[in-house]
Write a structure and sequence with these properties.
The protein has about 475 residues and is mainly alpha-helical. The protein has 2 domains: about 350 residues, no CATH class; about 100 residues, no CATH class. Helix content is about 60%, strand content about 5%. A 4-stranded mixed β-sheet has the order 1-2-4-3. A hairpin with a 2-residue loop joins strand 3 and strand 4. Helix 6 packs antiparallel against helix 16, helix 14 packs across helix 16 and helix 15 runs antiparallel to helix 16. The protein is globular, with a radius of gyration of 23 Å.
Length: about 475
């Protein structure tokens, strides 16, 4: 089949999902940088933008991440203007490319009747959609991972080498996932070829050599400049890179399971488990291949993250969510057509419900991992306007992450005011939202018992409150 014929065949499948992501980008174009994107996108991008790429390294208080994403945003801002809409639309090439990469992967492993279902289960995932609504480096990571995998499966070593090199200078997790790409490729080849000799493994390593050299060069330059790689104990997040205690390791394992099941994904795991059990004695080649796609990145990430105190985010597992959606789309083909439609509808409903999963106030929630967070941006702006109207100085208002960054960093404005970190003993006001996870149980109780609500704004599942001392 020619390339043109292949594209014509793909268009009815991919266009609805591309339209979904274009519409989502248009809807959120005015939303500010959120969660870790404040650092990884805005602060990094603005550093390279204002320095005009005159230096490779960011200041020491920001350091720890490779430069690719920040440089990409800075270049886009120089071309089109440093605004929030430009920032969001700079994500569109990766979002549209992601649809194409998921389609190629689905077409490779799924029967024709399962391809559309596979894309549906992937792009209705709450965390995939939530990250697609942000200026998020994890979307780029997911695109590059799938690009490399597809290029290797299609025996396109030059394209795969380019993708792997970009992964090597994108984020620490993309660097870690280089090993997952190689191990996945190796195991898929072993399943297809029946055996792997040393010479075959050596040949399969060739596309990875440029990425390995670039990664070593980056780590060497970073160490030479800063005196450390990975993390600095003196950085704001240095404590998160400490070794975990046995209790914390057990907690991390529980958190990993929770992240994987959260926001409606539990139904996909249950469906996959039941259907795998019923067909366990006769697993097809495609089933085993899709299990490799799922389990390898899950194992690689888990075996590294579980040993550290770093908070484990939902977005870390985007690659796993894609593989899970494709696996379930493949497995449901075993079911008769009427029952299959019912199962798919239940799965779609379960994923859609994930945007409404809000836990009690004292349980931290991954607000950057579902679309439930979207009202926050408007409510925050309204509360900032209220503070200015009431002439309440920002330095008298304590708050918490992600509301400690200035509007210059979150909204790309010229306003460099910022809130100090919360201190309920000394401050007159507290700017609180249920989007913030950094308030302790004791602080939340104190706010309810010892403070009064001066102003409250609500929309959807999000609220913001200004508390004043009694």
């Amino acid at each position: 089949m020619s390339f043109a014929a292949s594209v014509r065949q793909a268009l009815p499948v991919v266009l609805p999902f591309m339209a979904l992501l274009v519409g989502l980008t248009w809807y959120v174009q005015g939303n500010g940088f959120f969660w870790d994107s404040i650092l990884l996108a805005s602060k990094y991008g603005q550093w390279y933008y204002h320095t005009r790429f005159s230096t490779l390294f960011v200041p020491a208080d920001l350091a720890g991440y490779p430069p690719l994403f920040g440089m990409y945003l800075a270049a886009g801002w120089h071309l089109f203007g440093k605004t929030l809409p430009v920032s969001h639309f700079l994500m569109l090439p990766f979002l549209l490319g992601l649809v194409w990469q998921v389609y190629l992967l689905a077409r490779h492993f799924l029967p024709p009747s399962g391809v559309w279902v596979g894309l549906l289960l992937v792009f209705l995932d709450p965390t995939v959609l939530a990250q697609a609504a942000q200026v998020a480096p994890d979307i780029v990571l997911l695109f590059l991972y799938l690009l490399c995998l597809n290029a290797l499966l299609q025996h396109r070593p030059f394209l795969s080498s380019i993708g792997l090199v970009l992964m090597a200078v994108h984020t620490p997790r993309s660097q870690l996932l280089l090993g997952a790409v190689f191990l996945t490729y190796l195991l898929l080849s072993w399943l297809e070829e029946g055996s792997l000799t040393f010479s075959k493994i050596r040949r399969k390593l060739l596309p990875f050599l440029p990425a390995a050299l670039v990664l070593l060069a980056w780590l060497g330059l970073h160490y030479q400049h800063f005196g450390w790689v990975g993390f600095s104990r003196s950085s704001a997040w240095g404590s998160y890179a400490a070794w975990a205690s046995p209790v914390e390791i057990l907690r991390n394992l529980v958190l990993i399971c929770w992240r994987l099941l959260d926001f409606g994904r539990v139904s996909l795991w249950l469906t996959a488990g039941v259907l795998l059990w019923t067909s366990r004695k006769n697993l097809t080649l495609s089933t085993r291949q899709l299990l490799i796609l799922l389990l390898v990145p899950l194992a690689v990430l888990s075996l590294v993250l579980v040993w550290f105190t770093n908070p484990i985010g939902h977005r870390y597992w985007l690659v796993v969510y894609v593989a899970l959606g494709l696996l379930v789309a493949h497995l449901v083909q075993q079911i008769s057509r009427p029952r299959r439609l019912l199962v798919v509808l239940v799965l779609v409903g379960s994923l859609a419900s994930g945007h409404f999963w809000v836990y009690p106030e004292k349980i931290a929630k991954g607000w950057d991992a579902s679309l439930a967070h979207l009202p926050y941006f408007k409510l925050r702006h309204q509360m900032l306007s209220y503070l200015d109207q009431q002439k309440i100085p920002w330095q008298e208002v304590g708050s918490d992450f992600p509301n400690l960054a200035s509007p210059a960093e979150t909204d790309l404005t010229a306003d460099h005011r910022r809130f100090p970190a919360k201190d309920l003993k000394t401050q007159r006001y507290i700017f609180y939202s249920n989007v913030f996870n950094g308030f302790t149980d004791q602080e939340l109780t104190a706010l309810q018992q010892e403070w009064v609500v001066v102003q409250e704004l609500k929309e959807g599942l999000v609220y913001v409150r200004l508390y004043g001392k009694k």
